[in-house]
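Lab notebook, bench 4. The sequencing result for the construct came back, and we need a structural model before the next group meeting so we can plan mutations. Quick request posted to the team channel:

Model the 3D structure of this chain.
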Amino acid sequence: MELTVNITTQQDSSVLATISGEIDAYTAPKLREQLLAIDTKNTKKAVLDLAGVGYMDSTGIGVIVAFYKSVIADGGELTLVGLSPRLKRLFDITGLSGIIHVEEEA
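Done. Here's the predicted structure in token form:
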């Protein structure tokens, strides 16, 4: 399956990355490349919308953790939104939901 990443800068200089598809060893390099293109020095808030992600393996987790570290190092914050129950469980099991802010569904 293909991976699609749409990045938009909001009026408040926050960045929203809408991701859809599967994140695995094959597609993770594309995601990494897209996220590295975000100017985290001038972005205080980054949001990754994962509502369209049907599958993620450890490679995808690694890309998100690396992006998180980059955002935090530049003084910003990262929020994950739209996680399916499966992805939420993945972040819970790895302990990352206690480190990276995961916005719960209302």
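The longest strand covers residues 45-56.
Will bring this to the meeting.
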